[in-house]
């Protein structure tokens, strides 16, 4: 995902006038229509299901993985890689939005017939929300004390 995000930078060297010619050839195609991005959206829920099944098999919750603090634990490592996957997808969406704004503008209709400003609302979509939410819980517990109840 990081490599793909970096590739968006190539478009920064194209003038808006030159891109207008390329855009005509794209038709209704867009970054979100790319085979790679579609694959990300297809496999991410499957990754989440596999992770959930792993937790069930091991009798763990997401909080258990982080509270145990076993950074060498494969479940912990997998959880962190899923967070990285989400983060890089979010960064790709952000970079895509900024590239689109730079080339065609921010107050126009994109190639999919969607206003560019709608892209901004799609940036922070997370596939593995529980892995992000657990950080809130850990922070709340640490503010209350070690057992989460202020004791």
Task: Report what the structure shows.
With 151 residues, the protein is an all-alpha fold. The protein has a single domain, classed as Up-down Bundle (Methane Monooxygenase Hydroxylase, Chain G, domain 1). Helices cover 67% and strands 0% of the residues. The relative contact order is 0.14. The protein contains seven helices and no strands. Helix 3 (35-58) packs antiparallel against helix 5 and helix 4 (62-68) crosses helix 7 (129-144). It is elongated and about 60 Å long.
What are the key terms here?
mainly alpha, Methane Monooxygenase Hydroxylase, Chain G, domain 1, 151 residues, 67% helix, elongated, 7 helices
What order do the helices and strands come in, and which of them pair?
Blueprint: H1 2-7, H2 16-26, H3 35-58, H4 62-68, H5 74-104, H6 116-121, H7 129-144
Helix pairs in contact: 3-5, 4-7
Helix content: 55-70%
Give the uncertain stretches in residue-range form.
none
Question: How much beta, percentage-wise?
Answer: under 5%
The beta-strand count equals 0
Bulk shape: elongated
Largest sheet: none
By DSSP (H or I, 4+ residues per run), the number of helices equals 7
Run of helices and strands: HHHHHHH
Q: What's the short story on this structure?
A:
This protein is an all-alpha fold. The chain is built from seven helices and no strands.
